[in-house]
Amino acid sequence: MLEASGHVGEFSDFMTVCTKCDEASRADSLLEPSHPNPDALSKAELQTLLTQINPECPNCGEQAWSEVTAQNLMFNTTIGAGSSGRPGFLRPETAQGMFTSFPALLRHNRDRLPFGAIQVGKGYRNEISPRQGMIRLREFNMAELEYFINPHEPSKHDFSPWSAIPFRLVADGKEEQHMTIQEAIDSNTVRHDTVGYFMAQTYDFLLKVGIDPERLRFRQHESDEMAHYATDCWDAEIHGSYGWIECVGIAHRGCYDLEAHEKATGKTLRARREFSEPKVVEIDGWTMNGATAGPAFRALAGAVKKAVELLPAESTFPSVIQLDSGEEIEVLPEHVKRLQRTETITGEWYIPHVVEPAFGIDRIIWHILDHAYDDESKDGDAYTVLRLSNHVAPVDYCVFPLFEKDGMGELARSLHRSLCGKPNVVSIYDSSGSIGRRYARADEIGVPHCLTVDHQSLEDQTVTIRDRDTGEQQRVAIIDLV
Ligand SMILES: [Zn+2]
C-alpha cells in the first residue's frame, strides 16, 4: 500500500550532516535565511545553494557539510517476531486506508458522489531534526478528510455564508491579496471550487476553536512545490511564536490516489455514472474464436483475448502480440474473428477525483494556546489569562461559594453537581482563598465563566456569572444555568 501511494519511493526530506559534530540537519531548514522558499528546491539546487552559502551548524557552529542526500521519512519496523517477521512501516499519514476501502465507502454512501470520509489518528515521521516543540514531531495527531467527487459534474457549493469575509491569500508566490472566497474562485486564484469550499470551512473551524483571524492566511503551493499530480493546493498558515506555520493542507489530488492503488492491486476503485442520454457506439475490431483459440492458448486464452480485443480494426493476422505480462504470442487468422456491431451504452465507470483537507492537530492546538495566552499586569502584579474559545476550553465553569457557611457551600456544591451532570459540561468547585484569587486561578486555565454563590443566592436562587474576557458580572437564575 505504501509503495502504491509513493511513500516508499518518494517520501523524503533532503539532509546534510555536519562533518564536525555528526548532527544531521534538513538542508532546506539550514537555507531558510538565504532563500524565500527552500522547501521547493530540488536536491541539486539545495546542494548548489548549500555550497554557496555554507551556513553554520546549528549545533556546533562549524561550516562543513556532507553531500545532500534524500532521507525517507517513514519509520521502518518488523511486523511479527523472529524469522516470520515481515518488514513494515509506521503509517506516515492516515489517508491511504480510505482509498483502499473506497468500494465499501461508496456502498455505504448508497453509490452516490460526492461524499467524504474522515480518519483521525496518529501519524509517524522520522523527522531529521525535530525542533520547535510541538510543531515538528515524530509522532503526531492528524485528521484527514477524503472528499470524493465526480469530475464530470459541476459542484454546487453555496459560498453566501462567506460573502462578506475577505480571506488573506498568498497565491502562487505573489503578494498577499484580500478577497472573498467567491472572488478567489471567479478569478481562478483558487482553481477549484471544492478546494475553495474547504478553505472556507477550515476558516470557520479555526476561528471557532480560537485562532485569531488576523494571524491566519492561506498560501498556495507554487507549481514546483506541489506534488506532480495535484492541480491546486493551499495551506492554512497560522502565525505564532515560530512565524507562519502550515497547520492545514487542502489539496486537489485529481484521480492520483485511487488510480495508483488500482494499478497496484488490480482491484477496481471506481464509481458508476449514467449518461443523461444513452450513447450508441460502433464497435469494430477483433475478438477470439473460442473454438480454435481455447485449445491453442489454454491457460493464456484469457490474456490473449484481452490483448486481441484492444487491437485496431485494421490489424492483420498472423501477428505477434504482447500480453500484459510482457510475453509475446503469435496469433493466427483461425484464432480470431472480426467483431462489428453497434452497442448502446447507458453509463460508464470512472475514477473519482479527490479533494483532501488534512489537519495537523498538534500544530493547531499549539496555536490555540499561543493565541489565547495573555500575559498582562493587574495592580502591578503579573496576571495570566488564557482566552480559550468556549468550544475548546476544557473547563466550562468554576463554581465558588462566597463563604462556606450559612448554606452557601451546600448551594454551590449542588449547582456544581448539576452542571457536571449536563452532557459535555465540566465544572470545577473552588472554595479556597479570596474570590479574587479564585478568579485568577480560573483565568489562568482558560475557564470562560465563573459562578459565585453569595448571600442573595440563598434568598432568590440567583448567582453572579462573570465573563472571563470582559470581567463583567451579571445575576442569573440558577434554574437558567442547569
Ligand atoms: Zn556541527
Report what the structure shows.
There is one protein chain. By secondary structure, the chain is of the alpha+beta class. The protein folds into 3 domains: 91-270 and 351-377, BirA Bifunctional Protein, domain 2, CATH 3.30.930.10; 275-348, no CATH class; 393-481, Anticodon-binding domain (Rossmann fold, 3-Layer(aba) Sandwich), CATH 3.40.50.800. Helices cover 26% and strands 33% of the residues. It contains 15 helices and 24 strands. It has helices at 7-10, 27-30, 43-53, 96-100, 102-108, 181-186, 193-208, 256-265, 290-297, 301-309, 361-372, 408-420, 435-444, 455-460, 478-481; strands spanning 12-17, 24-26, 69-72, 76-79, 86-89, 115-124, 139-149, 167-170, 176-179, 216-220, 232-240, 243-252, 271-288, 319-322, 328-331, 336-350, 353-360, 373-378, 381-386, 397-401, 427-429, 449-453, 462-467, 473-477. An 8-stranded mixed beta sheet has the order 6-7-17-12-11-10-8-9, sandwiched between helices. It has a 5-stranded mixed beta sheet with strand order 21-20-22-23-24, sandwiched between helices. A hairpin with a 5-residue loop joins strand 8 (167-170) and strand 9 (176-179). The longest helix is centred in the middle third of the chain and has 16 residues, at 193-208. The protein is elongated, with a radius of gyration of 31 Å. The two termini are 51 Å apart. The mean pLDDT is 92. Bound molecules: zinc ion. Zinc ion (ZN) binds next to loops.
